[in-house]
Amino acid sequence: MKVSIIGIGSVGSAVATAVQNTGLARDMVLFDRDAMRARAAAEDLGHAASFCWDINIRAASHYRDIRGSDVVIIAAGANQKPGETRTDLLHKNVAVIRDIIPHVMANVNAATVKLIIVTNPLDVMVMLAQKLSGLPAGRVIGTGTMLDSARLRTILARGLGASTQSINAYVLGEHGDSSVINWTSATVGAIGLDDFCRQTKNPITAATRRTIEYRVRNAAYEIIQGRGATWDGIGAAVADCLTCIARDEHRILTVSTVTGTGRTAVALSMPAIVGADGVSAVLTPKMSAAETKALAQSARIIRTNFDAIGK
Ligand code: NAD
What we know:
Blueprint: E1 2-6, H1 10-22, E2 27-31, H2 35-49, E3 56-59, E4 71-74, H3 90-105, E5 114-117, H4 122-133, E6 140-142, H5 146-160, E7 167-168, E8 171-172, E9 180-181, E10 187-188, E11 191-192, H6 193-199, H7 206-227, H8 232-246, E12 251-259, E13 266-275, E14 278-282, H9 289-308
Helix pairs in contact: 1-8, 3-4, 4-9, 5-7
Nicotinamide-adenine-dinucleotide binds at residues 6-12, 32-34, 37, 75-80, 89, 93, 96, 99-100, 118-120, 122, 143, 147, 175, 229-230, 234.
């Protein structure tokens, strides 16, 4: 498999490391508008290769070097500074996606390529990338709330004394401040979350839920405050999504893809089946009335931001 990564900053570098560690890519091409940065990252990762998977890693000097890519990961663009929201990045990163997508599409096989979008504000960038690329919605995949769902699972696992792998709990909607925790469908193993809490005599009160929601939504802000950016979690999330594609796993991930058409089209995260052809189905979990309402509001926010970027 050939994987190209566009944007080799904090996130792109972490993605490259995580992808290298999967051993699933035979060729990995790193592209950045700062060519020296991409060359340095390729050199550094090349040295790491002798300790893990010896894959072909090189820096691209031109977009034609990404030819033959099965998957192109887009991690370029401005990141949040302390105090900034993801939406604050909108206009800067619209310009970045508008620059990148035509170059990518001129050098890949549109019949098969999958794009994984990481740039924020994520859902609007997925909509823009899908529109500019003309690819089917299922092959323009935003990492969406994969990371938010991982944050939720981690917090729950620590509180419940169960492994993160046993917790099926999703964050839906925007990868941003309007994300929605789908408490209604959360399970530990096959046992509903409330039932699990009753049986283990470890109840989650309404106040605890509110605290967890705050921690999930605030995690990125805290990490950015402490280390300037977030990269390890998202690197692992991208590698997991790539693994699903490479192995045609058909696992359920909360990725962001465009659903609907015309004025009702919107990209947001729902549980989706991900395999070799990208997203093959988007599913609707059981939701409370409040969750359904919050999800509709999240969709409206994303759509309004998309409309604000103009043609
Ligand atoms: P960074 O500033 O460290 O790196 C960005 C890189 O993009 C730089 O190397 C820059 O040269 C490159 N770049 C910018 N415009 C380009 C262009 N037109 N063509 C090619 N390369 C270009 O930023 P970062 O911390 O790596 O963050 C990158 C993006 O990822 C941001 O938008 C950030 O908000 C986002 N992010 C998303 C998630 C998520 O869960 N989806 C998580 C963390 C960060």
